């Protein structure tokens, strides 16, 4: 099973669940008004993207089912939805990231942002691990990511809730999950699912007559390349309008001892934004 917590849970409880099971759910962490605003901001972008075929060519190493049909994906969430920025900087989520990621880096950053709309009839996505992004790192390795999926609509087993394999973050990479080990992360709108980079997971098949919508926000160690190019997705003219903690999460900061400088050696990217 996937451990589930109320929104007032302490971050150490979530961290303990992630260390034990590789995944956890926090129920109703976002209020209904905020979720509705996020849904409205993404609605035109989702509508414009529904006719575009999935770009599986970029994920051939994972398999043809990485981006299944009847699924709409919109990236660049920070620039497209001002309201969703509060999800990125949610204090509970950042406290979990502090505990899990900061032992292995001086700062962490956003790896990728994406809204996923799973339409009726969509097949299940292939189970995969986030750490496939960095195949040259041997396993076992330190925690590279904390992934989150916010429920913009209710997540049910029938409508394609994210499927995970609790405990698989401790498995060797070649271990294949049996079907009875896979669990659907059912949760009401406003809840958030968290998992670690080596945890097997995938979107489920949508066998219902309604779409389900989730917002994926993933954080990774600051010395790793981000999956989504945040400097193009959130260009300087947009980044200048963001609060400093979000600017840093987007990647406009240096990682010790000197990764990511701009201009003179040792010059912080934030200085460029303030110029």
Can you offer a commentary on this structure?
Helix 1 (about 10-20) links the parallel strand 1 (about 5) and strand 2. By secondary structure, the chain is α+β, with helices and mostly antiparallel strands. The chain is about 25% helix and about 20% strand. The strands form two sheets. A seven-stranded mixed beta sheet has the order 1-2-8-5-10-4-3. It has nine helices and ten strands. The protein has one domain (about 5-230): Jelly Rolls (Sandwich), CATH 2.60.120.620. The model is unreliable at about 55-60 (pLDDT under 50).
Defining traits:
275 residues, Jelly Rolls, alpha+beta, 10 strands, 9 helices, seven-stranded mixed beta sheet, globular
Return Rg in Å: 18 Å
How much strand? 15-25%
The CATH first-level class comes to Mainly Beta
Largest sheet, strands/sense/barrel: 7 strands, mixed
Examine the secondary-structure arrangement and name the CATH architecture: Sandwich
| Overall average residue pLDDT | 93
Question: Residue ranges: pLDDT <50 for 5 or more in a row?
Answer: 56-62
Approximate helicity band: 25-40%
Total beta strands: 10
- Indicate how many domains the architecture comprises: 1
Q: Order of strands across the biggest sheet? A: 1-2-8-5-10-4-3
Instruction: Please trace the helix and strand order, writing H or E for each element.
Output: EHEHEHHHEEEEEEEHHHH
Distance between the termini: 51 Å
